[in-house]
Task: structure prediction
Amino acid sequence: MTSLATCLWFDGKAEEAATFYASVLPDSEVVSVERSSADWPAGRAGDVLVVRVKILGHLFTALNGGPDHPFTDAVSFQVECGSQEEVDRIWAALTDGGEEVMCGWLTDRYGLSWQVIPIEMTDYIGGPDPEGAARAMQAMQQMVKLDVAAMRRAYEGAGTR
Result:
């Protein structure tokens, strides 16, 4: 069977990160932890080498590869949330020890970039009313954590007449 998994390169914190993501995101679990049978450039025999983790139903390999390849925001994960409450919960967990950026983006404590967005957002920034969509987009660009009610108000023109 052929399959595809994303490999995430960590500096010694693969198991910690995998456990954290599995605790924060639904349909997530640590699948396996593999220890090295010999010394390698980033660790010693017996150290955790690879962790397989399912995050939101997708399989990832978390590799303890060492410090040479840190994450950048050139790659990010987008979490589409069904409610503002879910946005708030996931945002709070992922920013704990991390950094809020803007427009729904954040960097977690491991340096991985995320976009935490309410799925309803697309109804407003991509809605059929071009002027409303422009207002919603303008409102979104002023936000750090996304607020779907504020985007809805902007789309509907509340406070703009």
User: Anything to note?
Assistant: Helices lie at 14-24, 84-95, 121-125, 130-141, 148-156. The chain has a mean pLDDT of 95.
